């Protein structure tokens, strides 16, 4: 258990790391900033407190300690002065931190269930990854998910607004930092809830049971969230820089919240294959908003066709794999995101057609969630698509991967549109009222719930 005491000015942490058995002899940090921010440490040897300090990025204890606790102090101001939203940043009365910048952990964590408890000044709160525990003490406590410790993670510390957002099968723990303009929590929840409910339509429940949501208010930009990201380290989390100056109409039309939350339908995918993770989120960002009535069916298909058109126009001399590792421009992002979406669109429609509607990408993700989503590792794209095909018993996604990933051309979608009874001419979508096709089309727009086959 790590008991973390925070001082009133948010400049210092006092950490007491205690272990059920003996104190481990070797502690490490996962960020070099933890060494720079280390102020003082001690353990008990021969009845006396002995000072310790990092050497070559580690804390080593050559002799057994008299007790099972490590005490150390952290310079929070040093971390906050990094000026990086990925490592440490002060925002008025709040600190945005990567917990790896101050955490020292055993070199081998096998056998340890890592928990953190915070002792906070009055009026302060903390947002932390992992599973929130109710220990009855009034002190926030969290158990970390067993992810690699160097995966990015985020925490907020200070004067926060906090609320829980309950959706089928999950709790989203929403925390908003103080900023140039404070977020209205009621408005924040009103914005996020439809997106979370939309993602829940894939399997009937939200894919992760306990999700940390970090909101940083900003007062500029044209979008509801000028910047957002998903992190997987220590637990599932989504971070939004929320444009609190935007009119409510901007939030009604927003796709970013649905896009980001859709990432949680899949596991962490190796960044070299970001076309698949971003493609999945891009494919679902419009489809799911249509399912819950934020878009009409016509608007939903038109938004998807518009995205594919942007991706096609952005195609260049690089194949998809190389373009993914060289995303330095808005056009390259469009090409990568929407090519991935096109691959999944083609595969989803073909899978539904072959199986007579028995199988779909929705159902694959539901089955995958039952067996494998909790695996804390990075997946390569082809490996994940192989698992998708194994789950459905249909050879659909791997052939599409092999046809599309190594070419510089955007996928042809004419046959897929025709299968759905949709005509796309000069960028305009027309829904055709033929006999068989609308049923398949409606299965995408208003899917039937199919219970997973796993136990």
Shape: elongated
Largest sheet: 8 strands, mixed
| Structural class designation | alpha+beta
Q: Low-confidence stretches at least 5 residues in length (pLDDT < 50)?
A: 450-455
What is the number of beta strands? 22
Distance between the termini: 34 Å
Q: Number of helical runs?
A: 14
**What is the average per-residue confidence, as pLDDT, rounded to a whole number?**
92
Write down the Rg: 24 Å
Percent helix, as a range, is 25-40%
Beta content comes to 15-25%
Main-sheet strand order equals 5-4-7-2-1-11-14-13
How would you describe this structure to a colleague?
The protein is of the alpha+beta class and 455 residues long. 33% of the residues lie in helices and 24% in strands. It has helices spanning 33-36, 76-80, 185-200, 248-252, 256-262, 274-291, 297-313, 320-324, 330-354, 361-371, 381-392, 397-404, 414-419, 437-445, and strands spanning 2-6, 12-18, 26-29, 38-45, 48-52, 58-60, 69-75, 88-91, 94-97, 104-106, 115-119, 125-127, 131-133, 141-143, 155-158, 161-167, 170-176, 210-218, 227-231, 237-243, 422-425, 428-431. The strands form five sheets. It has an eight-stranded mixed sheet with strand order 5-4-7-2-1-11-14-13. Strands 16-17-18-20-19 form a five-stranded mixed sheet, covered by helices on one side. Strands 8-9-15-12 form a four-stranded antiparallel sheet, with no helix packed on it. A hairpin with a 2-residue loop joins strand 4 and strand 5 (48-52). 44% of the residues are buried. Mean pLDDT is 92; it is low at 450-455.
């Amino acid at each position: 258990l790590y008991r973390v005491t925070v001082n009133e000015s948010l400049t210092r942490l006092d950490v007491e790391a205690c272990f059920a058995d003996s104190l481990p002899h070797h502690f490490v940090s996962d960020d070099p900033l933890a060494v720079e921010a280390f102020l003082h440490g001690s353990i008990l040897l021969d009845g006396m407190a002995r000072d310790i300090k990092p050497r070559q990025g580690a804390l080593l204890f050559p002799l057994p300690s008299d007790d099972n606790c490590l005490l150390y102090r952290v310079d929070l101001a040093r971390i906050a002065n990094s000026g990086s939203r990925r490592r440490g940043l002060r925002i008025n009365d709040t600190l945005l931190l990567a917990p790896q910048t101050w955490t020292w952990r055993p070199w081998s964590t096998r056998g340890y269930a890592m928990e953190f408890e915070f002792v906070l000044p009055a009026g302060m709160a903390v947002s932390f990854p992992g599973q929130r525990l109710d220990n009855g003490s009034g002190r926030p406590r969290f158990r970390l998910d067993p992810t690699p410790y160097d995966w990015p993670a985020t925490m907020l510390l200070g004067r926060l607004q906090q609320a829980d957002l309950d959706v089928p099968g999950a709790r989203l723990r929403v925390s908003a930092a103080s900023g140039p303009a404070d977020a209205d929590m009621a408005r924040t929840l009103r914005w996020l809830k439809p997106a979370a409910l939309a993602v829940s339509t894939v399997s009937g429940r939200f894919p992760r049971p306990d999700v940390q949501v970090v909101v940083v208010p900003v007062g500029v930009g044209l979008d509801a969230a000028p910047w957002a990201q998903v992190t997987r380290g220590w637990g599932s989390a989504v971070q939004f820089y929320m444009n609190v100056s935007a009119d409510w109409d901007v939030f009604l039309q927003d796709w970013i919240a649905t896009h980001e939350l859709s990432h949680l339908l899949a596991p962490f995918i190796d960044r070299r294959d970001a076309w698949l993770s971003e493609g999945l989120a891009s494919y679902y960002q419009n489809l799911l908003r249509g399912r819950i009535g934020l878009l009409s069916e016509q608007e939903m298909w038109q938004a998807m066709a518009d995205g594919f058109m942007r991706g096609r126009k952005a195609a260049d001399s690089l194949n998809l794999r190389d373009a993914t590792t060289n995303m330095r421009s808005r056009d390259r992002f469009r090409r990568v995101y929407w090519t991935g979406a096109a691959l999944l669109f083609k595969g989803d429609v073909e899978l539904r057609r072959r199986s007579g509607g028995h199988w779909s990408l929705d159902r694959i993700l539901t089955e995958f969630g039952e067996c494998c989503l909790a695996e804390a590792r990075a997946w390569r794209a082809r490996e994940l698509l192989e698992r998708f095909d194994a789950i459905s018993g249909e050879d659909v996604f791997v052939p599409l991967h092999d046809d599309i990933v190594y070419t510089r051309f955007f996928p042809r979608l004419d046959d897929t549109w025709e299968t759905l009874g949709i005509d796309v001419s000069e960028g305009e979508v027309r829904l055709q009222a033929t006999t068989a096709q609308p049923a398949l089309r409606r299965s995408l727009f208003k899917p039937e719930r199919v219970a997973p086959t796993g136990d």
